[in-house]
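Session log. Operator J.P. requested a structure for one protein chain; no other inputs attached. Running the standard single-chain path with token output.
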Amino acid sequence: MRLLKNEFIWITLILIGLFLSSATPYSDQSIVSPLERFNWSWIEPTLANVQFDYAGKEISLDTLGTAGLIEFFMRKTAHVVTFLALGALFVKAISRTNLHGGLNLLFAWALANTVAIFDEYHQSLTPERTALLEDVLLDSTGAAAGVILFGGLLFLRSKRKNSKRAGYVALR
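Structure written below.
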């Protein structure tokens, strides 16, 4: 159980997952076909109002279809959530050092951004995949959220420990 609490194991698993995902062609990853088996008529009125540009392409119900649009949102959510976790794990790992709290957060975010850039570059070497600046920005946003949330938790925890020790006199 103690092994599961080790952030380095989780970081390694995420990095392996990113590497394998980036090395897989889109046609082998696509979940549009399984999504088409479901009846999405209940959400189509909401999705009909969705229309925006992403990486120079129009994202809408008309251009992608219901299953394609849902898959698009699932894939982009995966970017944010994965890097949110990675950012938080980097904060935990770096907090073991003697870096100042602010530098800890900045370094964790920089590490996560470096992973995002290399991940997109690796993806560009894979058939049917492209590297997108927009995906790096999504990754960076997720990492920033993870760094801020977990960094804030560590800060509050350290404040609580310090306030309990205020006025503490050690008997020798």
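Operator note: The mean pLDDT is 91.
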